[in-house]
Amino acid sequence: MSYKGNFLRACLFGVVLAFSAGFAGKALASDPLPGDAIGLPPNINIGLYYNVFVGSGTFAPAHGSNISNHSKLSLDVNVFRYVRTFDLGGMTAGAQIVFPINVFLTPAKVGGASLSTQSGFQQPLIGVFAFPINDDADGRSVATGAWVFPPVSSFNKNYLVNPSNNTTTYELEAGFHQILFGDPKGSNLALEAWDEGYFFSNNTNDQAAPGIPATYREQPSDEVRVYLPYVVNPAIGLYVAPGFFQSFGGKQTLAIPAFRAIADTGNRTQISELRFAAGMFVSPTLQVMGVGEYDVAGHGGFLTRSFQIRLAKFF
């Protein structure tokens, strides 16, 4: 059986969408996976499906000790994504769109206090990307991308935990991939690093409490990812990849006109996380990937454990 290239050719700006909401702490985000910084050929289509299970028993406030007693979050995320690549002046580029759906399996709790949760559609993600450097011979490549998340979702200001924050979100990202040891067309160990910056509009349709209108604001945030992907069997694209994730910033506040005040919600997007990914082709055009994530520290949100399965179909 002839399999399609290796695992690096199966990944393209992968998306792992956890949750996005007031007390949730983590922002809606694209999430590059190991191998995403290597370009695909032009003029191909990719359909992807993700199923992500997210759980937590600990809430980490912005200040003070973690709250583990009677804290809980349980969430299932389904993601549908389409990618199209094309040639842009001799450089591979492309466009993509992502539709995520959040389902809270149980009400969220912090220290035994229940937080009202609203399941439904997250904001869609619309992105463009390009690979200005893609040197197969040296195993070196650079990826760049831009996203916009329009404020179209199942947001309901009467719930504390929502599928989105109902803000127009802009993201810029860049990734670098370099083979450290081995043959680019065979088994090899590589270093891959990513940086993503996020900028947010305000949500003027929020509230500080029932009947008290407020404007939600989120400060810019940044995310860094580092992976060490190792291709075990290039014939079937079998690989393993440990990784690390760190996010910064994202302080969230509410401007309350009735009191002429700005309240700090205590929510941030500041997480330190360990990761492990593995995948392979099960047919020439179908790849299966699994990714585990484990938050080891954080401020202003739940510390989560998650596992996702991703299917990628090339056509």
Decide which structural class fits the backbone.
mainly beta
Main sheet properties: 15 strands, antiparallel
Please bin the fraction of helical residues.
under 10%
Over all CA atoms, what is the radius of gyration?
20 Å
How many E-type strands? 19
**Oligomer, anyone?**
single chain
CATH fold naming: Porin
Mean pLDDT: 89
In the CATH hierarchy, what is the class?
Answer: Mainly Beta
Count of discrete structural domains? 1
For the record, give the distance between the C-alpha atoms at the N and C termini, rounded to a whole number. 17 Å
Strand content: over 45%
CATH architecture: Beta Barrel
C-alpha geometry: globular
What order do the helices and strands come in, and which of them pair?
Blueprint (H helix, E strand, L loop, with lengths): L44 E16 L11 E17 L2 E20 L2 E3 L4 E2 L3 E11 L4 E10 L19 E14 L5 E13 L2 E7 L2 E7 L2 E7 L2 E4 L4 E12 L2 E5 L4 E4 L5 E14 L2 E14 L1 E14 L1
Antiparallel strand pairs: 1-2, 1-19, 2-3, 3-4, 3-5, 3-6, 6-7, 7-8, 8-9, 9-12, 9-13, 10-11, 11-15, 12-14, 13-14, 14-17, 15-16, 17-18, 18-19
